[in-house]
Amino acid sequence: MDFEAVIGLEVHAQLLTKSKIFCTCSTEFGAAPNSHVCPVCCGMPGTLPVLNKRVVDFAIKLALATNARINPVSVFARKNYFYPDLPKGYQISQYELPLAEGGYIEIEVNGSKKKIGLVRIHMEEDAGKLIHDETRPVSYVDLNRTGVPLLEIVSEPDMRSPEEAVAYLKKLRSILRYLEICDGNMEEGSLRCDANISVRPKGSDTFGTKVELKNMNSFKHVQKALEYEIKRQIALILDGKEVVQETRLFDVSRGITQSMRGKEEAHDYRYFPDPDLVPIEITESWIEEIAETLPELPDAKKERFIKEYNLPEYDAEIITSSRKLAEFYEACVKAFPKPKLVSNWIMTEVLRELNKEGKEIDETALTPENFVKLLKLLDEGVISSPVAKKIFPEVYKGADPQKIVEEKGLKQESDEAALEAICQKILEANPKEVEKYRQGKKNVIGFFVGQVMRETKGKANPKVVNQILTRLLEQ
Ligand code: ADP
Ligand code: ZN
Ligand code: MG
């Protein structure tokens, strides 16, 4: 029997507001434990929450960017549960009337586009953090995170593979970053993903029993956990057993999922509208005001890059996946209108360095000015491609390529007479290879070019070397 997976994601995005959602405490990450707390976020009796308007602004932004319907009236609700990191004994969230419903995010996997529907986008407060002492049977609670604003984005069960789930998550993160409402850092927990997954026989039109997966703090973990869970569920069914509806944790070191607890139902939380907060009315003019602040979004930017710069879809996809990288690219192309050359270099040398350090382009010392200077030196034949690649790491660290080339004497050797002498020498030193060439193994020329490059420390103009070698060998 052939099976297919059905996946729906619940994503929590921590918002980049300066203060918390219902009080004026700072949201800053990494402060001393319990230094960003007040009676409101500590849940003291008699205190009252006051909504931070910026949170609603940010939520409207995301709703607009995902084509969701914004409810003219939405309501905060209390989600009741007991846990030591939740001082009030309930979390303020939204339930029956969320901020927005519907909408979609478009993804592309293996060249085919697909819209993943959204169920809802709602606002809520984060809980605190428990810190467990490794050496003693003691746990501490840090309430700095209590009341930090979150958006929860719930998708329809529209994804059919781990690849689609990861593509959705990446696109959602890209949109959040473009909007500058969440930094998208999964390791630090500012973007968290719970994945719901079930399997069913291919062609079936009913869903199987789903399992909720938690504790995945990278794209790789999401992929791995889903792959594991698909295999586990299929094996159960083929064995005549049933999938149990439950919450499972991904064990990173073992690459498996393990049962954590039975799944709660909505009625376990005894939701009811929060009597301390008035319903939120969102007017058309408020929405219009926010709409005017929306930047060009990743999909639109990608389409424009393909048209305007004639970039292949693949290049455009990668370069527009980050707003900062796309802006860097455009600044370069403006100063040096060779879009494909700029793109090639960004996709290889630049991204290699960025990935190595896990940085965004604006967190580095690489400037469009220096980068364009380097590409011009290459394009005008002043330096060879191997030299350009060799000095790139220094340029990346902020050095002026022109200066490096002058100080180190790296200008390309294009002087025919000088190069011919070196070619001659290389041919004389390798008579066997010359023989091979003359017997028809023309690709030996690559070997000779390599030798000349070595001899000149990469400074020889490869085009000129090729011409000279061909002439000498064909004599
Ligand atoms: P619950 O009431 O159990 O929380 P919801 O209907 O609210 O379930 O859905 C929660 C998430 O689970 C959504 O992202 C939804 O797309 C996904 N989901 C729902 N049913 C399934 C299923 N059978 N298989 C996989 N995912 C599902
Ligand atoms: Zn507070
Ligand atoms: Mg639910």
From TrEMBL:
Pfam families: GatB_N, GatB_Yqey. Keywords: ATP-binding, Ligase, Nucleotide-binding, Protein biosynthesis. It is an enzyme of class 6 (ligase). It catalyses: L-aspartyl-tRNA(Asn) + L-glutamine + ATP + H2O = L-asparaginyl-tRNA(Asn) + L-glutamate + ADP + phosphate + 2 H(+); L-glutamyl-tRNA(Gln) + L-glutamine + ATP + H2O = L-glutaminyl-tRNA(Gln) + L-glutamate + ADP + phosphate + H(+). Residues 327-473 form the Asn/Gln amidotransferase domain. Belongs to the GatB/GatE family. GatB subfamily. This is Aspartyl/glutamyl-tRNA(Asn/Gln) amidotransferase subunit B.
